[in-house]
């Protein structure tokens, strides 16, 4: 295990003006186990406690209680040793805007213990790997968001850390840059680097990670591989629009069908979780017809992590922000 | 630890050298004082000859650079907190005090170079001062830089807000300058102002500078200025370093 965290809690004292304070429980007891060599995602809506969790694991803030062993060292007792073995890229990127990226990479390399010559070689390697050579000597502030993010990654990876933390790595990137970043993260796994990333994009967690936890209101609500989590709630989902008055009878009717795993109302639509959707859709249509319920619209999709989130929290991740 | 400090110093110096226009811009105001205010004073009864006036006036102008230059270095740091740069350094293997120490040393070096330029200009305008005195004054400048940038980084790390910081500095800067006798010697001031001025460390630094430029190394203001500046500098540096240590974790 590259990360083993038990009962991590973080309580902040927030100022509420006029000397009043309020205790805010950002993380209420999170357990995490990440195997070496995995891409592990922490998925959840904004404010769920993802960033606080990753900041505790990266030794930026001490946990209020609980323990975490990260890359073989205890985050509270031995933060220095943890820092030698991790790379960390925060939400804002954390690149010095005024200097050229090459300088930033070399500084990070030399802080990590390399000689000037080694640092220069390493920076050339990284600049090539991230296609940054042509921007290497321009101040970072003149670069685009995607280029800045690549410099942030390069700086974080300069000392070849066995574990890499990425806090919301693709927020604010356009689809092309997001896809590129996914490729870069996959390439890390290929080299044996473990990655822990936070995201509030379902597609990102689904496409990228080997395992994930879903957290909401500071607690882990589900844990597993994307496929296992989706299988738990059935493979397919039929989205039905029947009209407001028909929702309740339809829910009762469909819940009784043997191939239906669960029926949930979301706004005006019904989401019916079924096994083997292609095969069972005709049965479902017949059942509705027999019940005298008219269909306004219908669609059949594979279940997504949003359905997992809906199942565990009672709301959609898209609405949770 | 020393290695990390030197690495940060080198990095910051290269950054300053890449854009030397700002430190040069920083001495523009003091230079204008030299060019436009010193002749004015020289024409009044207090001044005497231009050379005498400049010898009186230049140490004050130097303190002005120290105050208005180094006191503002923290503004950049607020931005570095906001864009996550300091946060990333804090989880790197960097020895945290080096992050502040490297910057402070850069500020002290820049200040000494600025002072040399201003003294050079005053020399061209006709000032003649004791050379060893000028050298000791440069050391005092460096110590003042330590005090001012330590204070500035400490404030930046504590407040993390440009607005609050500029308010606080406005509040302190003007009385500090007026009660220093930079413009005119404090001996012209009424007794109560002179008494108040004694509580201003910069006042003693300016007084010490004047004695040094005159080549008078026996004046009591010199050890007093060094003692005060170094003690306060140690205090502000400790403050900013410990704030950096507490930045996270």
TrEMBL record, chain A:
<keyword id="KW-0067">ATP-binding</keyword>
<protein>
    <submittedName>
        <fullName>Daunorubicin resistance protein DrrA family ABC transporter ATP-binding protein</fullName>
    </submittedName>
</protein>
<dbReference type="GO" id="GO:0043215">
    <property type="term" value="P:daunorubicin transport"/>
</dbReference>
<dbReference type="GO" id="GO:0005524">
    <property type="term" value="F:ATP binding"/>
</dbReference>
<dbReference type="InterPro" id="IPR027417">
    <property type="entry name" value="P-loop_NTPase"/>
</dbReference>
<dbReference type="Pfam" id="PF00005">
    <property type="entry name" value="ABC_tran"/>
</dbReference>
<dbReference type="Pfam" id="PF13732">
    <property type="entry name" value="DrrA1-3_C"/>
</dbReference>
<keyword id="KW-1003">Cell membrane</keyword>
<comment type="similarity">
    <text>Belongs to the ABC transporter superfamily. Drug exporter-1 (DrugE1) (TC 3.A.1.105) family.</text>
</comment>
<dbReference type="InterPro" id="IPR003439">
    <property type="entry name" value="ABC_transporter-like_ATP-bd"/>
</dbReference>
<dbReference type="InterPro" id="IPR005894">
    <property type="entry name" value="DrrA"/>
</dbReference>
<dbReference type="InterPro" id="IPR003593">
    <property type="entry name" value="AAA+_ATPase"/>
</dbReference>
<dbReference type="GO" id="GO:0046677">
    <property type="term" value="P:response to antibiotic"/>
</dbReference>
<dbReference type="GO" id="GO:0005886">
    <property type="term" value="C:plasma membrane"/>
</dbReference>
<keyword id="KW-0547">Nucleotide-binding</keyword>
<dbReference type="InterPro" id="IPR025302">
    <property type="entry name" value="DrrA1/2-like_C"/>
</dbReference>
<dbReference type="GO" id="GO:1900753">
    <property type="term" value="P:doxorubicin transport"/>
</dbReference>
<dbReference type="GO" id="GO:0016887">
    <property type="term" value="F:ATP hydrolysis activity"/>
</dbReference>
<keyword id="KW-0813">Transport</keyword>
<feature type="domain" description="ABC transporter">
    <location>
        <begin position="3"/>
        <end position="242"/>
    </location>
</feature>
<dbReference type="InterPro" id="IPR050763">
    <property type="entry name" value="ABC_transporter_ATP-binding"/>
</dbReference>
<keyword id="KW-1278">Translocase</keyword>
From TrEMBL, chain B:
<keyword id="KW-1003">Cell membrane</keyword>
<dbReference type="InterPro" id="IPR013525">
    <property type="entry name" value="ABC2_TM"/>
</dbReference>
<keyword id="KW-0813">Transport</keyword>
<keyword id="KW-0472">Membrane</keyword>
<keyword id="KW-1133">Transmembrane helix</keyword>
<feature type="transmembrane region" description="Helical">
    <location>
        <begin position="21"/>
        <end position="42"/>
    </location>
</feature>
<protein>
    <recommendedName>
        <fullName>Transport permease protein</fullName>
    </recommendedName>
</protein>
<dbReference type="InterPro" id="IPR051784">
    <property type="entry name" value="Nod_factor_ABC_transporter"/>
</dbReference>
<feature type="transmembrane region" description="Helical">
    <location>
        <begin position="222"/>
        <end position="241"/>
    </location>
</feature>
<feature type="transmembrane region" description="Helical">
    <location>
        <begin position="171"/>
        <end position="193"/>
    </location>
</feature>
<feature type="transmembrane region" description="Helical">
    <location>
        <begin position="108"/>
        <end position="127"/>
    </location>
</feature>
<dbReference type="InterPro" id="IPR000412">
    <property type="entry name" value="ABC_2_transport"/>
</dbReference>
<feature type="domain" description="ABC transmembrane type-2">
    <location>
        <begin position="21"/>
        <end position="247"/>
    </location>
</feature>
<dbReference type="Pfam" id="PF01061">
    <property type="entry name" value="ABC2_membrane"/>
</dbReference>
<feature type="transmembrane region" description="Helical">
    <location>
        <begin position="54"/>
        <end position="78"/>
    </location>
</feature>
<feature type="transmembrane region" description="Helical">
    <location>
        <begin position="133"/>
        <end position="159"/>
    </location>
</feature>
<dbReference type="GO" id="GO:0043190">
    <property type="term" value="C:ATP-binding cassette (ABC) transporter complex"/>
</dbReference>
<comment type="similarity">
    <text>Belongs to the ABC-2 integral membrane protein family.</text>
</comment>
<dbReference type="GO" id="GO:0046677">
    <property type="term" value="P:response to antibiotic"/>
</dbReference>
<keyword id="KW-0812">Transmembrane</keyword>
<dbReference type="InterPro" id="IPR047817">
    <property type="entry name" value="ABC2_TM_bact-type"/>
</dbReference>
<keyword id="KW-0046">Antibiotic resistance</keyword>
């Amino acid at each position: 295990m590259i990360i083993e965290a038990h009962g991590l809690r973080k309580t902040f004292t927030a100022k509420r003006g006029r000397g009043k304070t309020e205790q805010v429980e950002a993380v209420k007891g999170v357990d995490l186990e990440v195997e070496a060599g995995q891409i592990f995602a922490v998925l959840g809506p904004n404010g769920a406690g993802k960033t606080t969790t990753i900041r505790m694991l990266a030794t930026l803030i001490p946990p209020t209680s609980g323990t975490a062993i990260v890359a073989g060292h205890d985050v509270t007792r031995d933060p220095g040793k943890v820092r030698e073995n991790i790379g960390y890229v925060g939400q804002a990127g954390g690149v010095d805007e005024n200097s050229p990226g090459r300088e930033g990479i070399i500084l990070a390399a030399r802080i990590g213990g390399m000689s000037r010559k080694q640092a220069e070689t390493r920076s050339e390697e990284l600049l090539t790997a991230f296609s940054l050579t042509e921007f290497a000597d321009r101040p970072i502030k003149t670069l685009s968001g995607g280029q800045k993010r690549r410099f942030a990654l390069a700086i974080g990876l300069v000392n070849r850390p066995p574990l890499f933390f990425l806090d919301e790595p693709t927020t604010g990137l356009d689809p092309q840059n997001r896809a590129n970043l996914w490729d870069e993260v996959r390439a890390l796994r290929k080299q044996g680097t473990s990655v822990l990333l936070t995201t509030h994009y379902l597609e990102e967690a689904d496409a990228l990670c080997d395992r994930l936890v879903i957290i909401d209101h500071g607690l882990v609500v589900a844990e597993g591989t994307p496929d296992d989590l989706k299988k738990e709630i059935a493979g397919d989902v039929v989205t039905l629009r029947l009209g407001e008055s028909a929702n309740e009878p339809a829910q009762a009717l469909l819940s009784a069908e043997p191939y239906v795993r669960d029926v949930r109302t979301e706004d005006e639509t019904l989401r019916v979780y079924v096994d083997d959707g292609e095969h069972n859709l005709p049965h479902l249509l017949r059942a509705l017809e027999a019940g005298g319920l008219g269909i306004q619209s219908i669609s059949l999709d594979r279940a997504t992590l949003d359905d997992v989130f809906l199942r565990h929290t009672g709301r959609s991740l898209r609405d949770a922000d | 630890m020393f290695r990390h400090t030197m690495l940060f110093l080198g990095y910051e110096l290269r950054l300053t050298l890449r854009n030397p226009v700002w430190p040069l811009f920083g001495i523009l105001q003091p230079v204008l004082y030299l060019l436009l205010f010193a002749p004015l004073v020289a024409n009044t009864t207090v001044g005497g000859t231009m050379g005498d006036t400049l010898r009186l006036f230049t140490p004050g102008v130097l303190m002005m650079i120290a105050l208005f230059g180094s006191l503002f270095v923290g503004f950049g740091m607020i931005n570095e907190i906001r864009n996550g740069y300091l946060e990333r350094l804090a989880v790197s293997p960097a020895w945290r005090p080096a992050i502040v120490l490297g910057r402070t040393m850069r500020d002290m070096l820049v200040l000494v170079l600025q002072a040399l330029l201003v003294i050079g200009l005053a020399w061209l305008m006709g000032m003649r001062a004791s050379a060893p005195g000028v050298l000791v004054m440069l050391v005092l400048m460096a110590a003042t830089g330590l005090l001012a940038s330590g204070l500035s980084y400490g404030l930046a790390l504590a407040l993390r807000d440009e607005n609050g910081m500029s308010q606080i500095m406005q509040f302190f800067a003007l009385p500090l300058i007026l009660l220093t006798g930079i413009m005119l010697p404090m001996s012209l001031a009424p007794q109560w102002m002179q008494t108040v001025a004694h509580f201003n460390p910069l006042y003693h630094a300016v007084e010490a500078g004047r004695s040094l430029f005159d080549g008078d190394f026996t004046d009591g203001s010199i050890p007093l200025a060094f003692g005060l500046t170094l003690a306060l500098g140690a205090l502000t540096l400790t403050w900013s370093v410990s704030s950096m240590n507490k930045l996270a974790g």
